[in-house]
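Changelog note: in this version the structure field was regenerated for every chain. One regenerated record is shown below for reference.
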Amino acid sequence: MPILIEHGYDVVCCVRDVTRFSPPESLKPRISVIQVDLLKEDTLNNIPKDIDGAFYLVHSMSSSGDYHKLEEQSANNFKNALSKTDAKHVVYLSGIVNEQELSKHLSSRKNVEELLGESSYHLTTLRAGIIIGSGSASFEIMRDLVEKLPIMITPKWLNTRCQPIGISDVIQMLSKAIFNQKTYDNNYDIGGPDILTYKEMLLELGRTRKLKRYIFTVPVMTPKLSSYWLYFVTSTSYKLAVSLVNSMKIEVVCRESNINDLLDVTPMTYKQALAKAFAKIERNEVVSSWKDAFISSGFQWNISDFIHVPDFGCFKDVRKSKMYDRQETIRRIWAIGGKNGWYYGNWLWKLRGFMDKLAGGVGLRRGRTSDTTLFAGDALDFWRVLFADKEEGRLLLFAEMKLPGEAWLEFKVQNDELVQTATFRPLGISGRLYWYLVYPFHGFIFGGMIRALVK
């Protein structure tokens, strides 16, 4: 979006929940924001008729085993909606599909490309392998593996070759392809200059992070075992792990094409892409992460539906404490979770995260996108940020862990006092039993946390 605006375009941003979208003030005059869900056909009527072109950057891979049906439905709805507009060009970011036998994930990408091509507008498809940079699930999974495991016993698909590309090169190519008539009705594989195995990529990532890593491949690890391995070690969902493992057995190397010359882009090397990605991470300049996205078949709600914490039928743990430094307390609240932890009883938070992971939940492994900023919609360990106003001093979190009910955690600064409220709305008897079982730990965890926040 910022690059398109820099190029002089006015941009219509389609989002599923407007309350989650926090663009910089400087860009707001050049954008309009509309609420669209591609699985709900009537919402596509919100797309203006006078648009000239569109980018299709949508997938449903992490949401369910039937993601190919969801992707087909989304593509059809999008294509039909755009046929009622003035759009003359669509650019679609897909995956490299140059093998005879494709995984379910890559077959679905190819099917979407064919569906999008059945309309009056021109279609350009850019097919990428692994994208290097925050926002890419594959990159963040590789980063998790390298940073957490000094020794890896891995499946043999780590010897599969692929051709990674830096995220800034992908953004350049997307923005230069739109309305470029030479690319109309064509598809192109895009990649950097290096062809590497997944093992080589992991080892190079380790060297970039100054971490010594040892990787041993074994032939006996089945796709199911591999998926469980990725799910427990990294911050991915199990569905996404399964899809990625099935695709990683297939070589994704670019076909020869003139796309770099057509768009005047010289893709950077894998090493350069890693250096750039980690420079942004270390400077807290990451603007998005794949784990911040809601999944279509998961939570079917808008943030605004959950922003008012209920009272009726709920259990509450309310604690208040005098603050000695308002700004420092707010700074600590805004730095909570992720690498910084929860200030008190961190081993209990980790144990709860591990139990959640065993139950098929998200666990603590998502961390947070930025160490210093929070916006509505951000993932924060096993919580989701519903409301974050630093000036007001209010942060509201909603639990995405596996629970027999719904839970909120709220921090609110009032005059010289911090009010910390944990709310639980139980589902049936199991929910009530759960509350009474964990209640003895609340005094320890929540009491220690508020004391650490205000001291």
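Spot check on this record: The first helix runs from residue 2 to 6. Residues 202 and 238 are 21 Å apart (CA to CA).
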